[in-house]
Amino acid sequence: MKIGIDDTDSPDGMCTTYLGALLCESLEDEGFKITEKILARLNPNAPFKTRGNAAVCIVAEEKSGEDMKNAFNIACSLVERFSEFDCEKTNPGVVVCSLTSDEDLNNSVPDELFRFYKKALCDFCTIKEAEELLEKYGFLYKGWKNKRGLIGALAAVSAEFDDFTYEILAYRNQFSKGIRTVKKDTIFLAEEKTYPHTWDSVDFENNVVVCVPHTPDPVLFGIRGETPDWVRKARSYIISEEPEREIVYKTNQGTDAHLIDSDISDILDGRSYKLKGFVSNMPVTGEGGHVSFKLTENSGGRSDGDESGKSVRCMAYEPTKGFRDIVRALRPGDSVMVCGSYKNESINLEKIYVESLSDDIIKKPPVCPECKKRMTSAGKDKGYKCRVCNKKSDIPEIIIAGRKIAPGWYEVPPVARRHLSMPLVRKAVHDVCKIQDSKIKSGNM
Fold first, then answer.
1. Which CATH number does the domain housing residue 179 bear?
2. pLDDT over 80 (residue 101)
3. In terms of residue numbers, what domain contains 98?
4. What is the rounded CA–CA span in Å between residue 276 and residue 11?
5. Residue 57 in 3-state DSSP?
6. In whole angstroms, what is the distance from residue 210 CA to residue 208 CA?
7. What's the CA gap between 38 and 71, in Å, rounded?
């Protein structure tokens, strides 16, 4: 039996994951056995999200025919008691269903429902689509106000994670709005003791604590990692005010599940992509410290600024800090793959893979063969002229300079990382595992 909840919070308070923790406690008080707690992050570009666009699904054993109805009533009661209904954007939804695993498909939800989850994760769903599926499958459900929360609630009960991580969340009382009391040095210690099995609790380069929010919600802190044991170990080092409650969720955070492999010519606003192409201009630092360059589909990989083919602007915004220096070091002709969301005609960079580097060509005025003095520009498109003997030349001196970056992956710092974006430390571990699996299957290990 699965109970999905979404859209209970607002910018001024509450958190759907907190309501999920309350639901677990209430169900256990009524004799239900909780078997899984799922936190499903959905499309990070959804225009109506409050913070991280999270929906929750609580999985419990179903022992009698009345269990679904009882769980539904408990969930609805909690939503009505704790949701931020005064906020125009808060439109809660509750979905309760019973799904039997299909061993042949190795999937616990019908393919049609799984596709709905994937669409909610990578694209946009409508309330009408959600309601039609809820009616078709006969699920118990209730939506409040415009019922938008039914989208996330249905997506949460329909979620199947190809890859997953865990997060332990500690909460203060939901009505607390003041400054959280968490000892900063203990969070750095937790990261030191458990990295790379946990990540993004702190940002060492910028000396910033990442896992303690500054928003007026019940979350005291959250630790993300590979297993429940690792996040609990990291949590054991943290000294803070006494939490009201804690919970460990299984989640799709840190998995890159939101990214779609695509060509530049096919991208749509509000989706997140992996795009391959070539840098077609020198990166530019604009107002506010944001850095941009154009990525083009041209196949020549030329280093002379050729922009044939479809192009898209890629942006490294000021909050990405030192990552902008990597972007500034790119040159026309570099072959790269970028990852990020497409909004307002730009890719908001989350990470970048530099496949190959072009020669960094610098053009300088030539040295005069007569006077041995360096010439100066004779004017735009007029070549060069020696100030001493007036000798002219149309050919510049070409210097191939060394590059400040090397092929490989580069990412934004933890302070700028999105919930769904996979940290490179996780990617490195997963790449090693894939190589080992391949060797095992081929009999070479």
1. 3.90.600.20
2. no
3. 2-158
4. 36
5. strand
6. 6
7. 16
